[in-house]
Structure to design on (273 residues):
């Protein structure tokens, strides 16, 4: 866990994300790359318009000043922090930054009085989840001395989730956390008998070359089951696989991921397939 990217907009949730990243960085000796993406129209960068160039330069200088104030925090003392400013909100650039610096993790705060609801409705965090090739940790509330001891990873154990599982296991190992695997069994079309569920899980673990136990938790809805199970195990993080173009909704069949994140006080980490 040597490189962490923290996208910020200088808001309170941004600072919560930065504090969380700092807690992780102190444990692993990580470097933090603090990224701010300006909302500049093409007109600002048009060389034929001198006034637009002046406005763009002013905006960049103001951002650099805010960066200096934002990063002047006691909890960052002793941590190598590198500020990065991009002129546009092009989320694919985050992958380029992550690849260039060999980053391991993106940490983002949530916005709005409805908690994480906005993340899944066209917000910045949703776009980050959809585009990022590395794990994204979305944190809702400030957690002092953030540490991951119990890491719940929930999926349906279809073989397409193997890449996400491997990423989650690698990260759990780096964090020295217990990886707790769970399959939520619900009534309806996707219901499986205990025998069929374990047959599917055993095939998954065989393909993953992993000797871990998986718990089957029965509930009336997937999101309720994940949340109830995670709370019962005092989880520090809930990990979920996600498909890039449709964000978390592909795995959760619509609003399940939104509902889970809305009602969960536990940080949520996504792993792109």
């Amino acid at each position: 866990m040597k490189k962490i990217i923290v996208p910020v907009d200088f808001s309170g949730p941004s600072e919560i994300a930065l504090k969380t990243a700092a807690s992780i960085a102190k444990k692993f000796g990580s470097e933090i790359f603090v990224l701010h993406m300006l909302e500049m129209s093409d007109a600002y960068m048009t060389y034929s318009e001198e006034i637009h160039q002046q406005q763009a330069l002013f905006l960049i200088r103001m951002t650099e000043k805010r960066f200096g104030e934002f990063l002047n925090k006691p909890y960052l003392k002793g941590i190598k922090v590198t500020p990065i400013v991009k002129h546009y909100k092009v989320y694919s650039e985050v992958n380029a930054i992550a690849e260039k610096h060999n980053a391991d993790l993106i940490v983002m705060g949530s916005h709005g009085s409805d908690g994480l609801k906005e993340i899944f409705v066209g917000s910045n965090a949703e776009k980050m989840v959809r585009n990022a090739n590395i794990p994204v940790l979305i944190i809702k509330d400030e957690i002092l001395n953030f540490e991951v001891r119990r890491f719940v990873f929930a999926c349906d154990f279809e073989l397409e989730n193997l890449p996400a599982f491997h990423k989650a296991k690698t990260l759990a190992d780096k964090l020295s956390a217990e990886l707790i695997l769970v399959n939520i069994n619900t009534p309806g079309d996707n219901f499986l008998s205990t025998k069929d569920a374990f047959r599917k899980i055993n095939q998954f673990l065989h393909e993953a070359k992993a000797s871990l136990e998986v718990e089957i938790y029965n509930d009336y809805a997937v999101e309720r089951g994940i949340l109830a199970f995670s709370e019962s195990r005092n989880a520090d993080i809930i990990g979920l696989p996600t498909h890039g173009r449709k964000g978390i909704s592909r795995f959760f069949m619509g609003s399940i991921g939104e509902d889970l994140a809305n009602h969960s006080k536990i940080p949520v980490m996504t792993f792109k397939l």
